[in-house]
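FW: tagging you since you asked about this chain on Friday. Here's the raw sequence from the shared folder, copied in full. Didn't touch anything.
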Amino acid sequence: MNITAQLPLPADTGRGLHLLVVEDHADILANVHAYLEPLGYVIDSARTGPAGLAQAASGRYDLVVLDLMLPGMDGIAVCRALRRTLRTATPVLILTARDTVQDKVAGFDAGADDYLVKPFSMQELDVRLRALHRRARGHHLGAVLEFGELRLDLRTHAAARAGQPLRLTPTGIKLLAILMRVAPQVVSRAELERELWGDSPPTSDALRTHIHALRQELDRPFPVPLLRTLPGIGYCLGSPHGA
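HL: got it, structure written out here
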């Protein structure tokens, strides 16, 4: 593992951030503690999937770093349980040796917020964690998004249109949140992919698939469609009254 020389702390550090690392590899855990604790992170760890899920469910963490290959319960199952069963919105960064597109898509669809492939730089881990926390902090400033008859609670991931609950995937929730924050403005395809997957977007059809699934849930039961596609430009939410 690459641990770089200690540098003076930048203004934006991990100071005070409570981090849970769910990882069964002792050397990786030791390196994470050695690098991040001097930066101000408060770190707890778990060595199995069930133990990590139990600790993460306490809600006292700002961030979770989650390995995929864990004893007892793999990281995908842990992340899915956090999002769908416990409705926990804590940012999750997946840490794994798996680097295929399919693995990344599975992680994001389970509700992960970022993905870092082993071997990795500890400096990059720190930067990604702080970026995740900044985004999460910004989300909580406006934890409930509303646009016309649409409502999305970012803390519980509960979405509804005209009072009718919407059954959305974790990626669908992220897509809807991005569109609702700027509605009725247009969001480009490239911008959506960057918000969802950072610098490592999956296949070119992935966004189209998620847009289709969102449209099926958001518009199919209602007389007026909200999700609009502007060919060659991007996507937006239109007026609930069709204007």
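FW: The longest strand covers residues 18-22.
HL: agreed, and The chain is about 40% helix and 20% strand.
FW: great, closing this out.
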